[in-house]
């Protein structure tokens, strides 16, 4: 799938293993990079081998994936058209929002 990034910090952590290790620690950075590889290798979310821990919708749909311990990654599935909550597995693009430790933003 095609990635996008909500913030410059998320883009830098996604594209640089050194920055990811520095911001997240080695174990969490490895889990983050593995999940990112799975997302990029899949054609749609239905092909991602790891299911999200939670799916919620407010003004946009957000998927929450576990990384390491209490850290989670928020991902927004995207399509060319507006989608319903039931259609997120068909999305073919995604936007990395943020990495959280409980409710504290890490990236």
Question: What layout of secondary structure does this protein have?
Answer:
Blueprint: E1 2-5, H1 8-15, H2 17-24, H3 26-41, E2 54-57, E3 61-68, E4 71-78, E5 93-101, E6 104-105
Helix pairs in contact: 1-2, 2-3
Question: Could you describe the 3D structure shown?
Answer:
The chain is α+β, with helices and mostly antiparallel strands. It has one domain (2-105): YaeB-like fold (2-Layer Sandwich). Helices cover 30% and strands 33% of the residues. The chain contains three helices and six strands; from the N terminus they run E-H-H-H-E-E-E-E-E. It has helices at residues 8-15, 17-24, 26-41, and strands at 2-5, 54-57, 61-68, 71-78, 93-101, 104-105. Strands 1, 2, 3, 4, 5 and 6 form a six-stranded mixed beta sheet that branches. Strand 5 (93-101) and strand 6 form a beta hairpin. Helix 2 (17-24) crosses helix 3 (26-41). The longest helix has 16 residues, at 26-41. The mean pLDDT is 95.
């Amino acid at each position: 799938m095609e990635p996008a990034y909500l913030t410059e910090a998320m883009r830098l952590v996604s594209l640089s293993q050194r920055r990811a290790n520095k911001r997240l620690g080695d174990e969490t950075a490895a889990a983050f990079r593995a999940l990112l590889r799975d997302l990029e290798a899949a054609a749609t979310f239905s092909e991602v081998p790891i299911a999200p821990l939670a799916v919620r919708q407010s003004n946009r749909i957000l998927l929450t994936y576990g990384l390491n311990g209490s850290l989670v990654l928020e991902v927004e599935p995207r399509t060319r058209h507006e989608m319903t909550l039931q259609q997120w597995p068909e999305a073919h693009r995604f936007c990395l929002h943020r990495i959280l430790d409980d409710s504290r933003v890490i990236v």
